[in-house]
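Record format v2
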Amino acid sequence: MSAVRRIGVLTGGGDAPGLNAVIRAVVRSCKVAHGVSVTGILDGFIGLVEMKVRELSLADVSGLLVRGGTVLGTSNRGNPFRYAFRRPDGVEELVDASATAKKNFDKLGLDGLIVIGGDGSLSIAERFWRELGIPVVGVPKTIDNDLFGTEYTFGFATALDSASWALDRLHSTAESHHRVMLLEVMGREAGWIALHAGLAGGGDVVLIPEIPFRFEALMAKFRARERSGRPFSVVVVAEGAAPEGGTQVFAGEDAVTGWKRLGGISTQIAREIESRGGYEVRATVLGHIQRGGTPVPTDRILATRFGVEAARLAVTGQFGNMVALRSDEIVAVPIEDTIGRLKRVDPNCQLVRMARSLGIVFGDEDLEAVDRSEG
Amino acid sequence: MSAVRRIGVLTGGGDAPGLNAVIRAVVRSCKVAHGVSVTGILDGFIGLVEMKVRELSLADVSGLLVRGGTVLGTSNRGNPFRYAFRRPDGVEELVDASATAKKNFDKLGLDGLIVIGGDGSLSIAERFWRELGIPVVGVPKTIDNDLFGTEYTFGFATALDSASWALDRLHSTAESHHRVMLLEVMGREAGWIALHAGLAGGGDVVLIPEIPFRFEALMAKFRARERSGRPFSVVVVAEGAAPEGGTQVFAGEDAVTGWKRLGGISTQIAREIESRGGYEVRATVLGHIQRGGTPVPTDRILATRFGVEAARLAVTGQFGNMVALRSDEIVAVPIEDTIGRLKRVDPNCQLVRMARSLGIVFGDEDLEAVDRSEG
Amino acid sequence: MSAVRRIGVLTGGGDAPGLNAVIRAVVRSCKVAHGVSVTGILDGFIGLVEMKVRELSLADVSGLLVRGGTVLGTSNRGNPFRYAFRRPDGVEELVDASATAKKNFDKLGLDGLIVIGGDGSLSIAERFWRELGIPVVGVPKTIDNDLFGTEYTFGFATALDSASWALDRLHSTAESHHRVMLLEVMGREAGWIALHAGLAGGGDVVLIPEIPFRFEALMAKFRARERSGRPFSVVVVAEGAAPEGGTQVFAGEDAVTGWKRLGGISTQIAREIESRGGYEVRATVLGHIQRGGTPVPTDRILATRFGVEAARLAVTGQFGNMVALRSDEIVAVPIEDTIGRLKRVDPNCQLVRMARSLGIVFGDEDLEAVDRSEG
Amino acid sequence: MSAVRRIGVLTGGGDAPGLNAVIRAVVRSCKVAHGVSVTGILDGFIGLVEMKVRELSLADVSGLLVRGGTVLGTSNRGNPFRYAFRRPDGVEELVDASATAKKNFDKLGLDGLIVIGGDGSLSIAERFWRELGIPVVGVPKTIDNDLFGTEYTFGFATALDSASWALDRLHSTAESHHRVMLLEVMGREAGWIALHAGLAGGGDVVLIPEIPFRFEALMAKFRARERSGRPFSVVVVAEGAAPEGGTQVFAGEDAVTGWKRLGGISTQIAREIESRGGYEVRATVLGHIQRGGTPVPTDRILATRFGVEAARLAVTGQFGNMVALRSDEIVAVPIEDTIGRLKRVDPNCQLVRMARSLGIVFGDEDLEAVDRSEG
């Protein structure tokens, strides 16, 4: 059906629910619709350097739709341009192994390479295409949903589901014990999960990297809720959230170390709230739980659509592109237009304004507005 | 803040996960953002005729985000233009009670009415606005996702979740027993749930109203799977699916009765497949389970956004409009542009083409294509 | 460690969540604790006759804990004493193939055979042991929980979870629409799932095979609920439930056929209730959904414990026994003491009495008691 | 029906899934079966001292079966014998307010008091009965399942479900990233949740308070898994777990403070493993998520049975008793026989031995045994 005979596929960077569904869709549509073979490259780009591969048959991808993780494995030290080579004397050295990758690509008889990964992996893919002429197609992957160029990525809905599940549980404990409960969710640069989870889980306060907060606003919200007969609050915290002029609160060399030692921003916020008096606070860090598990149906569908379209682009020779979701259609956009950029929450976007209309406090409000937020 | 002092809200037609989340969002944003009171009208439009109402406070809507159903109740005999009036002699008579509805609307001191409902309820809302001058704002509701003018409606993702949950369960039984398992899902006019569930749940065959099917194609698919070592199949059937020239298969007066008596299309399809030999078939009708339960997070968010925007439209006097989702934004569209039309699956749309690329059979393929669909 | 070198394992009869967890536990404990090899026999007893087997390694059972179904496959035509032999002329003949089974058992070098199955499979296992001298250990399997000799079996808690999940969904629809919702669950001979689901899911009426019901009691319950302001009811029906003097209600040759044609008892009960007037009724048959899916944690644990103990019994030569749960311990009981008997719900047991105390109606109450059941 | 006219009910101590189900069962069975009224006492024992109560009707408990938390509220400063009295000058003083509790009990016209709580609350209940003659019935509550006298308590199965849910998610991340993932679950004195979750979630290592562990055994397990091609491990840690001679590892004043500051044992274990080299480790503390949420069906049933039996004991004057589960029956045991004792995991019990048979390492094994645990 096409000059393309064999396609390679790899997964790079962190784990995300739906990776396996993309792999399955690539393999199934290559075989069924295009009569093309698929080589799975193991442990990310590293597998291309070290020639760790396996043939992927229809049987290999049977049952993958519901499985979390990636059967291809992935790796965080996955950059062939800075490959950690271990010399005979045991010393590790960073070398450019991209030529080896290119050579192996040819040796494997590949006509195209589908790279499923985040901004880092897609940047490497783009260099492969531009510098080495390796024909690549990208599939965007980020649980945080902060990748530029696509409305949503797979994994986000599943992470939201986990965060929402946790919030439902914390709510009943908060209510029974008259407590402030904090839930820390993923989002170092962008607060998408926190914002969506706050809306889905009935959060009272949402703290995101894009909106620096003041503790005064938080305390005002807790008091406003108490006055209206709800002496408990639920706070959703993105891991990248920070108070206004953040360095003042967590000042000093010690505090920087403390950040990592203390397991995240939520523990520090909890301590600060308690120190201001009047509230028992508990913090829960959802952590890696958000990355795992069976993808929710919408993520399975999005991942599948990405996989089918990536295969089609590869088979029809439309390289250098990344698949993306726009207005409920899957489209192709040049990888170079999307990498190195971040999709962050606009503090004035409709979703944030709606959240404020519901009384959700982001911590940058003047105190009068907070006082009115409980009716 | 606005001349509007009091808004009414009602839910019409069938149950859908997220109704309570809309009500909560209407009440919270009316109170918090607009300083406006809300009157809940019970049991759909009927409550406006019979003056069954209750004040809705913030406390009344606390905890509603996660609850299925509607705390306002709903009714299927809810058309005030054809109100079932029971005369003193016990005989029921259909009368036009719209003037009573209008009188009660004024008596309640309402400045606007938010109608959450499907095509039928929105059509009544539109007549209220056009014929009676009752200022309405619509919120579209349909689990089937077949309402025109909005990309998605709340309830659909939850129904998809239930259908996908059921498919995951049927898969393991199909595989262990070498059977053909049918799952009948909602969708009388449009196959959205079946199509999405088929993609999310790894269905082998998807039967939808928009694509009449031939049993020969189904049997060919089952045989193709058997040949490739998978002697079991999972079929997703929309309740409105029908074979090509449907009347021939379910012909006669008897068959029409039979349809209802036999509990749906899937039972008949199951019988026909068994009669063609070689396969043990089991049909499950998911039924009302799809309408109930806690909404999934994405439905909670969509319902909340609809509710906030409906309240804003009502408070700012933008009547005659319905809220809608377009490109991930909530917008207002004239109700009259959306009613009486149906959003159906285009047999040539990207989603259907992708499904076919994966090997999913819709039953209208030529047999050679089916033979190739298992690689 | 023991004279035993190799154990066979097979799964017989219907699918149940936890089968794979038993297989995994047998293989892991055989390898890790006893240094014994395991041969998997495919498609139930049939695999022993037709020599369809495969070696089971630790890698083969990795990930099985969470997977529904059985990787060994199962078969309903699985009795070697009445094996369906297909003659060269194509005619099927029932023959005694037990000698072949025995010969193959020896040929495979097996020192014991673990049979995971229901009453039918365990009866065959017992004949293997008594008549052919094949050393067997049984693992009881029945979703209905009606196997004699063990307090609970794996699969039951998962089926209960599914039934309870469905009831939660039907509840919100019942409440919003003022309807009577019926849920038909498994249980041909025993009402365990219906009874437990009724308690867990807040059912108003529970109909089980052990307690013949009268429609008058059902209607009285619906009216009592209506009087107390709850004009909706949820009814849980075991598939084996029947009215007092059942044949009168579903009389005649036609009705017997009708039973099967009409998809179960719940459809008939629904029709009867509607014909008695005043209530809109909807029936949902949960069906095979109860058999599939990831086992709930308690089923995974019970299945695992059964598997470990079955392996230990086999390795230490304690044949002819079945593992069983008693007072939270796994014990061994002679298979012959348990087969051919049924564990049914005692209408006077604590659980039924408690259900009645809560106002749950079983349909055999006098009407005054029913009237009082809503306080 | 009985001389008893009115029963009080309160919930004490920490939150647990199923508290509301007990309350519902008490109210429903009191009303339906016994014609007895129920007074709800708010915020634990404190409500009896401060006379915070409310009448509980059938409508009040409708829908409670599925709701986490307790509608009665609870309190951690709930001991009437050491009541924190705030003097007019603002100073808090601990006073014996038990006489006030007794006076209020009489003033409310109560004939009995049902106390739902853990060891602390039940000890107070027992003093009420013995010292003050307040007729009490106890309902045991502990998520950790460490209460003496009952095989299981409600809440445990739901906590196990949450822990197992989290483990399923961590598994896929562990596998994709070749990591050691730690999950810290509840269990300060007893390792029941960790042990069960380890079995249900396929843990490789389980660390519980009853079995002090050595890091050497852990490292040996990780290496054994790596050798057998599984370069990732999942460790379940009870919050009360400790290494052999624990003080040596976390020595010094600083470390003691550190314990609390650092968010639990799992963080410290993670650091120690990483410092021993070769493994990337991630720790997740499940925390309060385990206390909240909708109870799983088996917990709903157990809680309901406890509630019905507690009501029956109160109505029939069998005071001084606690309800308990034994061999699947609900029985009454004297409260005094159960309090002040702890039900811990016996390191030689069947469950632990079975876990070891599967290759699960508890950390006290000799290294050879660990080496063999991966086959």
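The domain at 6-154+295-337 of chain D is CATH 3.40.50.450 (Rossmann fold).
The first helix of chain D runs from residue 19 to 34.
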